[in-house]
Structure to design on (660 residues):
């Protein structure tokens, strides 16, 4: 089989139908697409009578803890007896499943790999990689439908969560006409998603506002207002009691400012090192080049690096390099 | 004809086809649905060869000024010669067209009224009121399609803007399966909406962040953290140079806080009076009752009032009344 070919939904469906015990997992530090995809597929296969274990190396983040049947997600056991099939979802490289999930998955007879990251090296025995899909959840919808697998309200809520979060509520360029038709179909099947949206997008802990407040009070504009940056100290995070997920999307507050072409957040970690996240809004500015200088990397428009502290020094060194790069493009 | 019956799209279409000169307007202080609907219908009728004037009592807000062909929107002239048909869109009561628009519209032979507000008293000669539609833009899509009227990229961008803004990017409970199918159809016709979304949702003036910063620094929690409120002084607004649209949605920052059931914003106006906006997140709390005490009103879950200043006194009086009402529900 060619490395670039997808196995068919029918083939993957057959393997799952023939299995008795199935384990499913997504990537470490799971997001809405990872949790939504593993619970949707897992719950559907349970309804179809399979013994299913839904695993996640890291806990379900607090902002997704309200989702129905999300209690099915468990941290990996030592091993699972008679594991017929392991399914990796939304996980671009095998390592990102996490060590404990990989240990369990090593005992499976077959590994299925379904994902929408174009860089996925097809590490499964069976692979379905579709990079034109904005979310793994969209692939799972198509798969369940093609195989006539059960899609109840719980499955639909998780598919919606997967698709909606990975498309920024249908705003990202990855959104397709098919994406909207899937949502229409799930609504016609009886789902309403507004309460889910309220909880996903319009409910947050006070901690989140305290972080935003610190960002707004401490942010700096430089390079003629083309860079907007914030250095988030570890002390602040301790004071606020920051939880995983709290800082997600904070960079968008800087990103959205009219005239800013490069927002940056410096996050001081517990060990004193500094995690840098940087974005570009200008096709000519390649922020991965700046990150490369500090041993990081990523994409042209979104990159990161980890630098030695102290925070203020890392901030200054990185901003100088970024400013030079901005001057270079004119 | 019964007051509760809609005139058919065919009837309205016939009237427009038979017209030579048509004027179209939405409500004062126009939002995305108003601008999107009037430009979409107006541009389509222009493509169909009609003389069309697209009017708005108030200017297009800055956050919508990037929209294609939005320069077609003009402030009302003294009158329009030989005006055959006037079309009011997204305007629940005739007064809300504005005095100058109403003066122009008074010269029209026929007034058409298309809207999605259930309370619309059907003030047109021809009326099409569909309260199950989440946006007037959704009605306009169905109308144009049913009548085979032109729908080019400009029309589609405006319909998307109308529908997306009035549904909170497809998150509100008013969103229907049909809504998603319309977006799918417009994408299949060749539109991509991500750049539009970037400009609509992820671009804002620095002023906006300065307002958010003031809100976060000055907000107060009361009633056991069930009320989150902010008093926005006129001085602050002058300092920042607030423009129409800048304050829109600020209340959602308070609304989203976990545990808060009633967010309130007090806005000191130029004349010293205070505009109160209040929301309820708890079905048992009817905020319109509290507003009624101060001569205001609205809906159970979203109300407003205008109070005498000074700001601090209005704030205290209103919060006391709101707290009493919250205690009453327990
Ligand atoms: Mn994904
Ligand atoms: Mn509307």
């Amino acid at each position: 089989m060619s490395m670039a070919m997808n196995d068919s939904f029918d083939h993957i469906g057959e393997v799952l139908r023939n299995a008795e015990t199935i384990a499913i997992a997504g990537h470490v530090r799971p997001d809405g697409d990872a949790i939504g995809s593993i619970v949707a597929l897992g719950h559907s296969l349970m309804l179809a009578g399979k013994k299913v274990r839904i695993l996640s190396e890291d806990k379900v983040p607090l902002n997704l803890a309200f989702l129905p049947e999300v209690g099915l997600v468990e941290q990996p056991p030592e091993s699972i007896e008679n594991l017929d099939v392991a399914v990796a979802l939304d996980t671009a490289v095998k390592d990102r499943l996490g060590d404990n999930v990989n240990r369990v998955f090593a005992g499976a007879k077959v590994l299925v790999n379904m994902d929408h990251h174009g860089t996925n090296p097809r590490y499964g025995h069976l692979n379905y990689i579709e990079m034109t899909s904005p979310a793994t959840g969209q692939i799972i919808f198509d798969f369940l439908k093609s195989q006539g697998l059960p899609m109840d309200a719980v499955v639909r809520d998780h598919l919606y969560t997967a698709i909606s979060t990975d498309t920024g509520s249908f705003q990202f360029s990855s959104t397709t006409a098919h994406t909207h038709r899937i949502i229409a179909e799930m609504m016609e099947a009886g789902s309403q998603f507004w309460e889910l949206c309220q909880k996903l997008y319009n409910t947050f802990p006070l901690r989140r506002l305290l972080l935003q407040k610190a960002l707004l009070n401490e942010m700096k504009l430089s390079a003629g207002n083309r860079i907007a940056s914030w250095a988030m100290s570890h002390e602040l995070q301790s004071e606020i009691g920051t939880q995983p997920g709290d800082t997600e999307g904070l960079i968008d507050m800087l990103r959205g400012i009219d005239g800013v072409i490069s927002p940056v957040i410096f996050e001081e970690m517990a060990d004193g090192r500094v995690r840098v996240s940087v974005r570009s809004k200008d096709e000519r500015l390649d922020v991965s080049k700046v990150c490369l200088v500090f041993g990081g990397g990523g994409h042209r428009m979104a990159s990161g690096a980890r630098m030695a502290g102290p925070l203020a020094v890392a901030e200054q060194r990185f901003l100088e390099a970024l400013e030079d790069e901005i001057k270079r493009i004119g």
Notes: Chain A has two domains: 3-200, 206-329. DSSP finds twelve helices and twelve strands in chain A.
